[in-house]
Amino acid sequence: MNSLIKISFIFSLLAACSAIAFADNSKINDTSNETLKPVKLEKTESDKSSQLPLDFYNHGVEKQLEGKIKEAIKDYTKAINLSSQKPLIRSRAYQNLGVISHQAARKEIIKDPKKALTILSKVKEDYKKSMQLSSDRGNIAANMQLLLNDAVKANTIIKKREEMAKKRAIATEKIKQALEKQKLSINIIDKTDKQKYQNEANKKTKEAHNAVIDYNKVSKEAYSPQDTKLSGEVSQDTDNALKNQSNAKYKEAEQNLIDALKKLTKNQKNNKNQDKDNKQKNNKNQKKNDKQKKQDQQKKQKKAEQKTKEALDKQKQANDSKNKENQKEKQKEANKKTDEAQKAIDDYNKSMQNNKNKKNSEDAEKQIKQAQKNQKDNKPKDAEQDLEKALKSLKKNKENKDSDKDKQKQDQQKNKNRPKNQDQNKQQPKPKYDKNIDKNQAEALLKMMTKDEKSLKKALKKKQQQAYGSVPVQKDW
User: For the residues of 31-52, what is the DSSP string, one character each?
Assistant: First the structure.
């Protein structure tokens, strides 16, 4: 058995162990006990370097067995990045990454099914990559099937919890109605009317009790121990109310219904507060993820620019070389660097999903591929121009981002400098006449007031002259 077959066999054994581990723990309540038992891969005689992807892979296996998941993920990621020529290692590394996340998702299915679905969507991508890189897809396909089953479970729990919330609201409303009828029957003096209202109270209490039982049933299906416990306690209260009603203990029945309602309304307040806390937590996590995503994009853009610049420099050196042997050697280096640039740009482009500046990165990707084609067709000058265009597109992407940042800062500064009483500077609307006053009368009134104002000014001036006399004007000519 040669080395490659040996490694393939061990990989297949590893994949089979992973699939079996999942298959034995497919029930929701058993997922917390599920573990992955990875197998180390043997080195071949040609594996001499200490920085081989196989070393990182095996190191990741060790860390995973020790429960150091974060470190294991880092090592698997390094193994993937260094194994471009070894698809089998990449495939199994992606599979192990997927299994790690899959286990994490399974622990969240009951606790937070929505979070579980988010994790499972990433797991699906890891499994897909693993399948694309390996011809042995059976075991990975088995894990994919388990993933789909887990997604169904999570969605089912979400729907059941939505139904549970509705059942809880119905039970609350039914208890309110029963309590209202019970209070009326107690306060009525007339015996005939009293019996009539008490019969209605009994009927409403039975409806409330049945509604609580429905709530209790769905809470169990929704895997909500808190609601199961609450609905059980409330069910006991409504059952006691029915017993007290049958024994003509109406005051006690009233108190039973009050207790039941208090428990439900208190729980609803707690749920609202919990939902608010979860929303704030999710928003905080989303901001953190967005920030991390932006930082990753910046790193990938910087790497894409650097690799493209290196490829361009090598291509220029090859084009400027006059010695044929030297030119041939330089061209090989340029080709290699261009391949590295293409991978870096492709990686950057994938991170630019739903980004308005994605067009520039897509242009860079097209131009780098054209450069590769021209290098293959022995058109080095054309390849150099393509690389220049690719680098220009990448830098243009950066300029657009910087421009967006500057614009955002300017907008923030404008809002900061805007006067608080800006609305007061706006033109005041024309006064409207009161609907009870005739428009013509209002205008006549204004004219009269203006005339009176002129007369008043004349009278004041005349009195001033009488009081102080006429002062002669001093002339200086």
Answer: GGG--------PPPTT---TT-
Q: Which helix (H) or strand (E) holds 239?
A: helix 225-246
Q: How far apart are CA 327 and CA 331, in angstroms?
A: 6
- Per-residue pLDDT tens digits for 297-318: 888 888 988 999 998 998 888 8
> In the chain, what is the straight-line distance between the N-terminal and C-terminal CA atoms, in Å?
130
Fill in the DSSP letter of residue 83.
-
Element (H, E) at 27: none
Measured between alpha carbons, how far is residue 338 from residues 349, 367, 460 in Å?
16, 11, 95
Separation CA 358–CA 369 (nearest Å)? 17
135 to 11, 41, 53, 143, 348: CA distances (angstroms): 12, 18, 20, 16, 28
- Alpha-carbon span 321 to 313, nearest angstrom: 12
Contact (Cβ atoms closer than 8 angstroms) between residue 390 and residue 305 = no
Q: Which helix (H) or strand (E) holds 188?
A: none
* Cα distance between residue 90 and residue 92, in whole Å: 6
Residue 311 and residue 298: Cα distance in Å, rounded?
Answer: 20
Distance from chain centroid for Cα 253: 48
Give me the half-sphere count of Cα atoms (radius 13 Å) on the Cβ side of residue 65: 10
Nearest CA among 52, 66, 51, 60 for reference residue 94: 60
pLDDT in tens, 334-382: 899 999 988 888 888 877 766 666 788 888 888 989 999 998 899 989 9
Residue 407 in 3-state DSSP? helix
Give 168-178 pLDDT, tens digit per residue.
Answer: 999 999 999 99
pLDDT digits (tens, 9 = 90+) for 151-210: 999 999 999 999 999 999 999 999 999 999 999 999 888 888 888 999 999 999 999 999
